[in-house]
Amino acid sequence: MTDQAEGYTTADGRKIGGVVMEMKNITLRFGGVVAIHNISFDIREGEIRAIIGPNGAGKSSMLNVISGFYTPSEGEVWYKGAKRPPMKPYEVARQGVARTFQNIALFEGMSVLDNVMTGRLTHMKAGILPQMIWKGRAEAEETENRIIAERVIDFLEIQHIRKTPVARLPYGLKKRVELARALAAEPTILLLDEPMAGMNVEEKEDMCRFILDVNDEFGTTIALIEHDMGVVMDLSDRVVVMDYGKKIGDGSPDEVRNNQDVIDAYLGVQH
Amino acid sequence: MLHDIFIAPFQDMFSAPDFLLQVLWEGLVSGILYALIALGFVLIFRSSRIFNFAQGIMVVFAALTLVGLHAMGVPAWICVLLTLGVMFVLAMAIERVVLRPLVGQPDIILFMATIGITLFLIGFGEIIFGGENKVMITEELGIPTGSWTLEPFGGLLILEQKDVTAVVVAALLVIGLLVFLSRTQMGRAIRALGDDSQAALSVGISLHTIWVLVWFIAGIIALVTGIAWGARAGVSFALEVIAYKALPVLMLGGLESIAGAIIGGLMIGLLEKLFEIYWGQPLMGGNTETWFAFVLALLVLLFRPQGLFGEKIIERV
């Protein structure tokens, strides 16, 4: 596997393309606290890229930088070959970066279908006026959005709860609905913030299967944060390891597993 | 005394059912207008957690602009379009100048800001259009001014055509709004923003766009209310006072429920009229309409603080 070349082929024979997003020397400070210290890595087309690390390593901060919730203090974010200026989260979303949240951020008062439909907002083209009078483009768009939303709902096997208000769903299903909403945006990059957190073994297995299927079926590039090492090693093509805001490893799961710094970070070092 | 309170009023109702119908109709008409104003409050509250004190003055301002433009010789229907334009500009200005700099501030600050907007609109309206009372351009807008006379139960029921128009237009507006909120992407965005602003950002919803949109819709509602109420009572700054009637409506219906605002508005309109005619005038010398709604709201607050339709608030201790 060579990182410099234009893409690579994974162990299971999937072709990985060129760089979609590149983080260059990202540093993020909150006052005197350095959450991320000079980290660089890239995300390639079609791969499942994981960011792992112990609690407080700065993983979520990194995800927030990618999705525009935080603006890095130093460093550059490159997206599709161009430097990305500082952006609001909704602008990043419209560029094709969808995300989920660790603590689930769904629209609790709305039905599952409506939640998934909001995922299509990034593709809204009809103006306010046509929507107000429900004519022309707005109507055609609504139909198209509905078709895509239903396809995602089918794919993630949540048809039976389409009309249920989200507030009534159990945790595992909520996670799945959140994934559905992000997928409905047909994102270029899908960011998953601890997709397995708080799940039981069965739910984790389901979620793993969905992540792999999404990547396989739609060719979606996925970047995910997780601290469950076992899950990450099975899922991902390449892994970035963070500890105390620094990058201590980057490579295939096997490379990372055998990296002494990583072992020290996870198991502790004897002094 | 007990007879006068518990028996005589109902005897009156049944002995003259046509008059009862008349009273109910009058109550329904004012109820619909209360509901419209409350709807403006609910929309803005749901999408931005702001209690918009300026909703009442927006009604006056919209009506003043409409009448003022017509006084300058602009044809009536073009006045309506221009007023809609003014309300849109107002929505953009409020978002840009008042709301955007205050994002993330405590609710009470934003509430105070809307009081500021109220005072500004009063002053601005007076400078541009003058403070004297004006007559709504009812006929020029093509609103019929005659009345229909019906004879139910062999009695007499008079329906003013402009009231009928107001009820029909208000009903259409509410239905349209409900469809817009539930069936369009913009509508979903409005509801989504009210639910979880962080998640809304992550699906590409721009706070600023939605706020402008919501304040513009509140402006449209204000214009319709202004025309309807102006046609009955003339256009003056005193109109603002009726907006305070929307407060008990909100306490009854809850701040977050559109259905609550409508039902609450109708209930207050009907009950205050019934009370005035059958209890207020014979027993208390009348003029109970000014305070009845507030007393009713107090009672509701005592027994159901979340409103009749609000979510029950359960706090973990």
UniProtKB/TrEMBL annotation, chain A:
Residues 21-269 form the ABC transporter domain. Pfam families: ABC_tran (PF00005), BCA_ABC_TP_C (PF12399). InterPro entries: AAA+_ATPase, ABC_AA/LPS_Transport, ABC_transporter-like_ATP-bd, BCA_ABC_TP_C, P-loop_NTPase. The keyword Transport applies. GO terms for molecular function: ATP binding; ATP hydrolysis activity. The keyword Isomerase does not apply. Coiled coil: none annotated. GO terms for cellular component: plasma membrane. Keywords: ATP-binding, Nucleotide-binding, Transport. PANTHER family: ABC TRANSPORTER ATP-BINDING PROTEIN, CONSERVED COMPONENT OF ABC TRANSPORTER FOR NATURAL AMINO ACIDS-RELATED. This is ABC transporter ATP-binding protein. It comes from Seohaeicola zhoushanensis. The lineage of its organism: Bacteria, Pseudomonadati, Pseudomonadota, Alphaproteobacteria, Rhodobacterales.
UniProtKB/TrEMBL annotation, chain B:
It comes from Seohaeicola zhoushanensis. This is Branched-chain amino acid ABC transporter permease. The chain crosses the membrane at residues 20-43, 50-69, 75-99, 108-129, 164-182, 203-229, 249-271, 283-303. Its main location: membrane. It holds the Pfam family BPD_transp_2. Keywords: Amino-acid transport, Cell membrane, Membrane, Transmembrane, Transmembrane helix, Transport. Belongs to the binding-protein-dependent transport system permease family. LivHM subfamily. One of its GO terms (cellular component) is plasma membrane. The keyword Transport applies. It is a multi-pass membrane protein. One of its GO terms (biological process) is amino acid transport. InterPro entries: ABC_transp_permease, BCAA_transport_permease. It is found in: Cell membrane. The keyword Transmembrane applies. GO terms for molecular function: transmembrane transporter activity.
